[in-house]
Amino acid sequence: MMKKILIYGGTSLISLELIKIYLKDNYEFIIFTRNKENFKSRVRKFGLDEKKFELFEVDLSNLEENLKLISGIKKNIQGILWIAGETGNAVSEFQDPVLAKKNIEVNFLHPTLIICKLISKLNTDQENFIAVVTSVAGLRGRKKNFFYGSAKSGMISFLSGLRQKFSGQINILTIIPGYMSTEKFDLNASKFLVTSPERSARIIYNAINNKKEIVFINFLWRVIMFFISLIPEKIFKKLNF
């Protein structure tokens, strides 16, 4: 039987790089994306086989529609890759509760509920997995992104609890990427902290195969966040970064 991976956030560069890797292992894919045509154009651009993909167009903010689509998926998923999310804008969200609510829903509430629903679709062998991209923003709250950071912090905690609940049954990986070079994210001034989608995908792939629990895409971020975690709150609140 053909192995399948379900991916949320299929149009991102890191998703496409992971797809390219897993295609070599003869996988097929179930893709949840906000724009099917955009995904199809990227598949054609990369020269990938369109027959390998089953596409669902859905907005992550619409929980009911997501759950309805999931209920129709047959059991036979080897892995779940969650790469969807939105950074948002902390200034606007602080002023508008509707925007703040959407950030928390898209980055924490809806992903956790959808992942719980998807678990029943996973194969029950020792090679199954759930891999979720979180953020260094979830490791300590900052004024520049405190709604987003809070949501990602919740996701990191959720995955830790899920890992304990399904210990020995499902391999669950928390991915902490730091800065990643993408079409929307230009960080030329901090290149030593930035990882390419190609390298990121390879690190994630290896972490999944080695059944890791947590992986920092760039080891420098593990060091940086360790020292940031040591800063006393009385000092940290006066910092501007």
Description:
The protein is α/β, with parallel strands linked by helices and 241 residues long. It has 9 helices and 9 strands. It has helices at residues 13-24, 36-45, 63-71, 90-95, 97-118, 146-165, 197-209, 219-230, 233-236; strands at residues 3-8, 27-33, 53-57, 79-82, 129-133, 171-176, 179-180, 194-195, 214-216. A 7-stranded parallel beta sheet has the order 3-2-1-4-5-6-9, sandwiched between helices. The protein has a two-stranded parallel sheet with strand order 7-8. Helix 6 (146-165) links the parallel strand 5 (129-133) and strand 6 (171-176). The protein is globular, with a radius of gyration of 18 Å. 35% of the residues are buried.
Largest sheet: 7 strands, parallel
Characterize the overall form. Answer: globular
Report the helical percentage.
Answer: 40-55%
Number of strands: 9
Average pLDDT taken over every residue? 90
Beta-strand content bin:
15-25%
Count of runs of 4 or more consecutive helical residues:
9
Computed structural class: alpha/beta
Unreliable stretches: none
H-E string: EHEHEHEHHEHEEEHEHH
Strand order of the largest sheet: 3-2-1-4-5-6-9
Q: Ends: how far apart?
A: 50 Å
Radius of gyration (CA) equals: 18 Å
SSE diagram, text form:
Elements: E1 3-8, H1 13-24, E2 27-33, H2 36-45, E3 53-57, H3 63-71, E4 79-82, H4 90-95, H5 97-118, E5 129-133, H6 146-165, E6 171-176, E7 179-180, E8 194-195, H7 197-209, E9 214-216, H8 219-230, H9 233-236
Parallel strand pairs: 1-2, 1-4, 2-3, 4-5, 5-6, 6-9, 7-8
Helix pairs in contact: 1-7, 3-5, 5-6
